[in-house]
Structure formats: structure tokens, C-alpha cells
Amino acid sequence: MALDPGEIAALVPMELVALVVAAFAGSVVFGITGFGAALVTVPFATHFVPLPFALALFVLMDLTNAFRIGFENPKHAVKSEWTRLVPTILVGTVAGVTLLVNLPRQAATLSLGIFVFLFALYSLFNRAQSRIVSTRWAYLAGFAGGITSTLFGAGGPPYAMYLSHRGLAKEQYRATMGFATLTSISLRTIAFLATGILLDLKVWTYAVAIIPAGLAGLWAAGHLFRRISRDTLMRAVALMLLASGASLIVRAMS
Predict the structure, then answer these.
(1) Which residues contact 219 (CB under 8 A, 6 or more apart)?
(2) Where are the alpha helices (DSSP H) in the chain?
(3) CB-based burial of residue 196 (10 Å sphere; 0-12 exposed, 13-18 middle, 19+ buried)?
(4) pLDDT reported for residue 10
(5) Which of 17-21, 145-149, 241-245 has the lowest mean pLDDT?
(6) Would the pLDDT of 181 be above 80?
(7) What's 28's DSSP letter?
(8) Which segments of 82-121 are extended strands (E)?
């Protein structure tokens, strides 16, 4: 016997619908820019589910997306840049997961809100010409990315800030960024398994819907990038992140 619309709605929690929409939108951003999915998905998701649950759920989607994008053109990756980042990404991941399991929920929400808000401001107002920075900044970028990857699900911004100031060609930047992101997400997944955050059965149940939505977002990104500039998209995302970060800060302080 067929189910009526009311019965179908009862079987699909509204939080899952919201998370699927977030997965699609985040993957569109990731597919065009090479990073930033978690900056869209995690802040939005924390309005419906606890932060640890959101991080565990979207790390599965992020890992799938990273493998899909990370090996598109590996020959363009600058291996020396990637290998400089890896050691401190590992150290930062350990530090980040330690903070995650010990921070009170309100403090974690406030920290996420501030991080997202500040990154949005950086994206909006950083229009200066890129200058080449020393390779020594790779170690700070790796450490910061490892922490923000596990604590907020967003390791990409520190890597992007560093690599965008290394004078790389567009193809080199995207490929190297893909390797750094894949490394960061893989380590985050291992850390979440080790701490038990990723052992919640509900996470894996929701992932059945989240991962296909993410892959659909990557497919859409492949068609959109020809019609919208990266700068236009990043400005729109930054404005959205300003609102998202501000709402998280207000909610944490209320």
C-alpha cells in the first residue's frame, strides 16, 4: 500500500532534509574552488545537530569528495609544497581533536562562529595583489589547518592562504590544494574513528543520503564553473558565511 505524503514526511526527519541541502551546496563550492565545503555545511548543520555529529557526518562526504577531486590532475601538484605541509598537519590534527573532545558545546559553537566570521571578512576584503611568502609559512599553515580541520571541519583556508602566495600556476595550485585537503581530511577521519566520534550508527545512516547529495553537488559544480567566475562565487559565499558566523556567535552567547 502506498504511503501518503504525511507518512513519507514522518519517515524523513527535517534535519536530514536540511543536511542534504547543505551537502549539495557545500560540494558545489568545493567543486569550483577546491576547498570550503565545511565552511558551508558545518555552521549550517549545527543549527540542527550537535557540532561533533555534524563534523563526523560531513567528514565522510568530504573524504569522498576529496578523493574525487584530489586525483583529477595529480601530475600538476607541487610535491615539495605538499610534503612541507604534511608533518604539521598531523600535529595540528592531534591538537584539534584533543580540543574537540574537551571543549564545552557552547565554547565550541562560539569558536566556530568566530572562525567562520573572520574568514568571511578576510575573503571579502583581501583584494591585494598576491606576494610570494617564505616556505617557512608552510609549517604554520599546516598546523593551523590541522587544528581547524578537526575542530571545525575546515582545514582548507590556512592551506589556501599559504598556497595562493607561493606563485603557483592555477593548475598547480588546484592540484597541490587537493593533495593537502585530502591529507587533512584523511587524518581527520582517522582521528574521529580513534576517539569514537565516527562510531555513531546514525552518522552512517545519514551518510547514505549525504554522500550522494555531495556527489551531485560536484556534478553541478562542473557545469557551473563555466558560467560563474570564481571571484563572484567566493564573494557570495563570504556574504553567506558572515551571516552564518554571526548567527552562531549570537546563539552561543545567548
Answers:
(1) none
(2) 5-11, 14-33, 37-45, 51-70, 79-102, 105-125, 137-152, 156-163, 170-195, 201-224, 230-253
(3) exposed
(4) 44
(5) 241-245
(6) yes
(7) H
(8) none
